[in-house]
Amino acid sequence: MMASEAHGTGTIHAPAPPAPPLPRTRARRWPARQLVVLLVVLLLGQLAAAMVTTAVRQTPTIDEPVYVVTATDYLHEHRLRYNPEHPPLGKLLIAAGVAVADPRYDPDFPGTQGDAGRHLLYESGNDPWRLMLWARLPVIALTLLGGLVVFAFARDLAGRTAALVALALYAFSPDVIAHGSLATLDLPLTAFLLTSVWLAWRARDRPRLYVPLAGAALGAAAATKMSALPAIPLLMLLAAWSVWHARAGTGRRHRVLSALAGAGTVLVVAVAVVWTAYLVVDPRLGFAPAEQVPPLAGKRALVSGLLPLPPAYGAGLRTQFALEYYPWEGFLFGRVYTGALWYYLPVALLVKTPLGLLALGTAGAVTVLAVPRLRPAAPYLLLPPALLLAVAMTGARDFGTRYALFVPVFLAMAGGCVTLWRRRWAGPLAGVLVLWVAVSSLRTFPYYLPYANEAFGGPARTHRLLHDSNVDWGQDLGALADRLRERYPGERVWLVYKGSGVPSYYGIRAADPRTVPPERVRGLLVVSDSAVAKARGRLAELIRTSRPVGEVGHSITLYER
User: Fold this and answer.
1) Per-residue CA distances from 89 to 66, 67, 111, 309, 311 (Å)
2) Do residues 156 and 381 make contact, with C-beta atoms less than 8 angstroms apart?
3) Cα–Cα distance between 286 and 281 in angstroms, integer?
4) What is the dihedral of CA 366, 369, 375, 378, to 10 degrees?
5) Angle, CA 261 vertex, CA 255 and CA 262 arms, to 5°
6) What is the rounded distance in angstroms from the CA atom of residue 411 to the CA atom of residue 433?
7) What is the signed CA dihedral for 34, 35, 40, 42, rounded to 10 degrees?
8) What pTM was computed for the model?
9) What is the pLDDT of residue 239?
10) CB < 8 Å & 24+ apart, contacts of 229-232
11) How is 438-491 classified by DSSP, letter by letter?
12) Which of 254, 265, 310, 451 has its CA 20 to 30 A from that of 337?
C-alpha cells in the first residue's frame, strides 16, 4: 500500500528500518558449550571406566604393597618408617583410600617393607581385593583431574577443539590408563608436574595468583617422587620468564627484580609444600627407618645433605643414589644386559606409545615452533619433557616407561595444537589419528600394562621386546588362578612368578621347578614373562624343552611338559 501510494504521488519514502536481529549468539553458543561439556564427560567417563575395570581385576603389582603398607602406617602410627626413598605425598593420597578400607594392621611387625606389605595384604585378615581397590581409587581420581588440566591447558593454548583432541589422546593413552589405575606414584608425579607447567604458563597474565600456585604444584611433585627435583630449576626459569612477560611496559630493572622474585617464590613455596607433606605424617619429623639407609660418600652425599629439606628426604635421596650404583639387569629386544642403556627409554616409548599419538605429538611439536601464536608456549610444552627424559635416560634402572610417563602426556598436549594448521586436511587428519589411538587402546582392553603399538606386534608380542613394568609387574596372578581352575583342574603346576602377590592365597598350589631335577618337572609349567625374558641355566632349559599352550594377560606364559 505504502509503495503504491509513493509511486502514484511521486513521493519517496525512506525504507522502514529493519527489525533488530534476534539474540542468536547466546542460542548458538550454549549448544556448542554443552556439546564440549558432553564430550569432556564422555572422554573422562571412558577413562574412568577403563581404569576402574583394570583396578578391579588386577592383583597387586610389585611396588603397590609397599606403598599401601606405608600409607597404612602413616594413618595408624604417624611415623616415617617405611619407603624413605619416596617422599610422603603420593602415599598420603593413597592413604585416603586406605582409610575407607580400614584394614587390620600390626604396627610391630618386624621385617622389610616388602614383608610388611605382604603381611598387611595376606596375613592380617584383610581382603586384598577390597583394600587394593580402595588404595587405587584416589590415584584414579587424580588421573581424571589430570585430564581436566590437559583440557584446560590445551584450551588456553589453542582453543576448545585442540583441548578436546588433547584430552582424547590423554584419555585413550594405554600408559595413562595402566598407571592411573594403580596405587603407585608415577601418574601423580606426572599430574603435579603438568599442573605446575600450566600454572606457570598462566602466570604470564596473572603472576601474583599463578606463580605461587605453580610453586605449590611443583612442590607436590617433589613431595611425591624425587625424580621431580630436576624440574625445579626449569620451573623457576619458566616462572621468571612469565613474570618478565607480564611486566612488559615497566622499567627493565623492575622487570628483572620481578622475574627474580617469581623464581624465588616458586622455590620457596615448593620447599614449603615438601616440608608440609612430612609434617602431616609426623609433626615431630621423627625418622626411624625399618631398613638401614645405605651409606653414601662423594658429591651425591654432599647434595643430599645440603638440600633445605627434612632429614628424611635427604635419607631417601641417599637411598635413591645408592640404587643407582646397583648392577641391575635389563632386557631390550631379546638382549639381556647388566647396567643401563642410554637409549632404553626412547626405544621403549616408541614401542608403547600409540602410533597416532606419536604422529600427532610430533606434528604438534612442529606446530608449536612454526605457528607464531603458539611459539611463546614452546618452552613450556617442549622443555619440561625433554629435560626430564634426558635426566631419566642417565638412570641405572631400565624398568619401564613409567619413569617417563610425562612424555605421552605432553605429547597429547602438543597433539591438540595441530588443529591450528590452516589446512583443510588438518582437522580430518587429526580426527583420524585420534580415532586410531582410541581403537588401538580399546583393542588392548583390559591389558593396558603390556600394551605395544601395531608397528611392534601389539600387546601379545611386548614380552619379546621389553620386560618388568612394561609387560609383567605381577598384575595377573588372580587371572592365572581363574585360568587354572577353569582349564587345568587337578593338573600339577610348576610356577615361576615375578610379583608381590601370594599364589596360595588365590588358590594356586604350585612348586618351584628350579628346586628339583628337570626330569621331575611334569605337568604345567607357568612362568612370568619377565622371568622368561631373562631365563638362564635350568629355567632356560625347562622352557626350551616345553611346549607353549597359552598365556594369561600377555604377562604369563603357560607351557606343557
Assistant:
1) 14, 11, 24, 14, 16
2) no
3) 10
4) 80
5) 90
6) 13
7) 110
8) 0.92
9) 98
10) 230/387, 230/388, 230/391, 231/193, 231/196, 231/384, 231/387, 231/388, 232/266, 232/267, 232/270
11) HHHHHHHTT--TT---GGGT-GGGGGGT--GGGT-SSTTHHHHHHHHHHH-TT-
12) 451
Low-confidence ranges of the chain (pLDDT < 70): 1-30, 297
Query: Dihedral sign, CA of 497, 499, 504, 508?
Result: negative
Alpha carbon 57 to its chain centroid, in Å, reads 19
What distances in angstroms separate CA 207 from CA 232, 258, 265, one per listed residue?
A: 18, 10, 11
User: DSSP state, 511?
Assistant: B
Q: What confidence score (pLDDT) does residue 427 get?
A: 83
Query: What gap in Å lies between CA 521 and CA 76, rounded to an integer?
Result: 46
What cell numbers appear for 29 in the block? Answer: 553458543
Nearest CA to 289 among 62, 119, 86? 86
Cell triple for residue 443? 583393542
The pairs formed by 279-287 with CB atoms below 8 angstroms and a separation of 24 or more are 280/88, 280/92, 281/74, 281/78, 281/79, 281/80, 281/88, 281/92, 282/78, 282/79, 282/80, 283/78, 285/80, 285/310, 285/311, 285/312, 286/79, 286/80, 287/80, 287/84, 287/311, 287/312, 287/315
Residues 52-102 have pLDDT tens digits of 999 999 999 999 999 999 999 999 999 999 999 999 999 999 999 999 999
Helix (H, G, I), strand (E, B) or coil at 19: coil
Span 317-373, pLDDT tens digits: 999 988 888 889 999 999 999 999 999 999 999 999 999 999 999 999 999 999 999
Q: Which residues contact 26 (CB under 8 A, 6 or more apart)?
A: none
State the Cα–Cα distance between residues 177 and 46, nearest whole angstrom.
Answer: 10
User: Would you state the pLDDT for residue 305?
Assistant: 74
Nearest of 466, 477, 542 to residue 507 by alpha carbon: 477
Q: What is the pLDDT of residue 556?
A: 97
